[in-house]
Write a structure and sequence with these properties.
The structure is a single chain. The chain is an all-alpha fold and 194 residues long. It has one domain. It is built from nine helices and no strands. The longest helix is centred in the last third of the chain and has 37 residues, at 117-153. It is elongated and about 65 Å long. It starts with a helix and ends with a helix.
Length: 194
Amino acid sequence: MDLAMSAAPPPEGPVNPYAAPATPADMASVEGVAAHDLTREEVRAFVGKNHGYYWRNWQRATGSGLRVGFSWPAFFLSFAWMLYRKMYREFFIWGAAVFGLGVVRGVIESVTETNLDAVDKVENFVVAVAMGMLANGLYLRKARRVIADVRAREPDPERRVALLEVRGGTSWLGLVLGLAVAIGLGVLAAMVER
């Protein structure tokens, strides 16, 4: 067999001889197909107590979409579920979107002088359904991102598991603080309306 034929082609473009070697996180695709790139031990360490549920759902995932089964806890508890699962970035993105919809609805109400309470109820239901449909996929995307980062930072498997347990899992503190902020904002909004 000719060795020249089995070698990888040279990289295109200029090569930096002083660049750090590629790490698994650089090569790992966060948007890969399913969760076949994750090990069960990594999922157990990252998710915590309900790892079996997520492992089964994530293994059935195909493609790079966010549809990975329906999450009833996320449907009923949307934002609280995100805070409990330490999905803070996703919480702020969804919160900003819902806040933006509320501002648009408020502007339309003030301009047209109509009551859009029915639209508010439909909006809340649509947000809950969307969260239920996308939650497992969003959580899988976060798991891939965190696990790829931990793999790149920590070569020792035992320390990697410990780091995944810290960076993953659940947070009652995040949930309580988030709910306190939400209640405070609700009280503030009610005071402004008066």
